[in-house]
Fold this sequence. Notes:
Helices cover 28% and strands 28% of the residues. By secondary structure, the chain is of the alpha+beta class. Among the domains are: 80 residues, Translation Initiation Factor IF3; 102 residues, Dihydrodipicolinate Reductase, domain 2 (2-Layer Sandwich); 69 residues. It starts with 7 loop residues before the first strand and ends in a 12-residue tail after the last strand. This is RNA 3'-terminal phosphate cyclase-like protein. Keywords: Nucleus, Ribosome biogenesis.
Amino acid sequence: MATQANSLSYAGCNFLRQRLVLSTLSGRPVKIRKIRARDDNPGLRDFEASFIRLLDKITNGSRIEINQTGTTLYYQPGLLYGGSVEHDCSVLRGIGYYLESLLCLAPFMKHPLKIVLRGVTNDQVDPSVDVLKATALPLLKQFGIDGESFELKIVRRGMPPGGGGEVVFSCPVRKVLKPIQLTDPGKIKRIRGMAYSVRVSPQMANRIVDSARSILNKFIPDIYIYTDHMKGVNSGKSPGFGLSLVAETTSGTFLSAELASNPQGQGAAVLPEDLGRNCAWLLLEEIYRGGCVDSTNQSLALLLMTLGQQDVSKVLLGPLSPYTIEFLRHLKSFFQIMFKIETKPCGEELKGGDKVLMTCVGIGFSNLSKTLK
C-alpha cells in the first residue's frame, strides 16, 4: 500500500492533467496543495473535477481525497481498467482536454478502452477532435499501437458555450511499445483540412475554404479542404464555425493548425474569410517550426518514448513549447528519466526554425494490467 511518504507534492493548479496522468502510469501518489488558494473562487474548477471523475471511471481502486474548499487534492492511483465507458465532459473546456490524457493512458489498460465523450468538440482553447484524429492517431501508430479497434469518430459536433457534441474513441491495449527513430521530417507533399459549420449557413464553410486556399495555393497544388455541415441533432446546441488544417510530409509527419469562431455572445463576430486566412498563416507558422511531431503532440511523443522498451528512441522536434518543457521536468520526477537534448540550428538550407533532437532510453514499461490471453 502506497503511503503519503513516497508521494510527490506540488502546489498550484498548473499542469494538473500532467501530474495525474504520470501519477497513474508510474503508480506514485501525488498531493497537490494551494489550488487557486488566493482566488475569489478558490479550489478545483468544474472541468478539473470532471477530469478527476473520468480518471476514476477508467481506473480500478483509485483513492481521491479533496478537502472541503477544493484547494488540496490527494490522488493515489489504481490500476488502469478500461472497458466501455461514457463520460459527460464539462462544457467549460473542449473534449480535447480530456482526450489528450486518454491518448496517453489508453494503450496501458487492462481491457481495450471504448469511451463515449460528450461536450464541446471544437473550441478556441483545446486541440479539437479533428486535429487529434489527424495527428495524434498516426503518431500512436508509429509506436505500434494499431488495429481495427483503433479509431476516433465524431458523432455530433458541439460548439461552446452549449456543447452537445459526441465523440467515440476506441483503442487497443499493448504489452510493450516500439522504440522510434523520427529524425527526418521530410518535405510537405499535401495539405488536407476540414471546414465545419453548425447552426449557421452552410455557405460559411465554403467561404472559409476559399480564403484558406487563396494563401496555401501559392506553395503547393495538392490541397483539399472538406466541408462538414452537421444538421439537426448532430449540430449540438450552439452556432459556430471553424477550420482545421493538416500538412502531411513525404516521411509521414503530420503538422496541424486550427481556428474556431468566437462562442455565441462572447467577443466580436469573426468573418469566415479572416478565419480561413489566419488559420492558413498558423499552419505556415507550424510548418516553419517543423520537426517530426507538431507542437500539440510533443508531450505525447516524449511520454511514449519514455515508456518504450529499453532501447534508444530519437525524435526531432521544433522549438519546445512551455507545456513540453514542464512535462520533461515532471517525467524526471515520476520516472527518473532525462532526455539528451541537442539543438540543431536551421543552417544554410533554411528549412524553417531551429530544431531540437530529443534522445532517451525507454524505461521498459510493461503493461502489467493487460490480461494474458
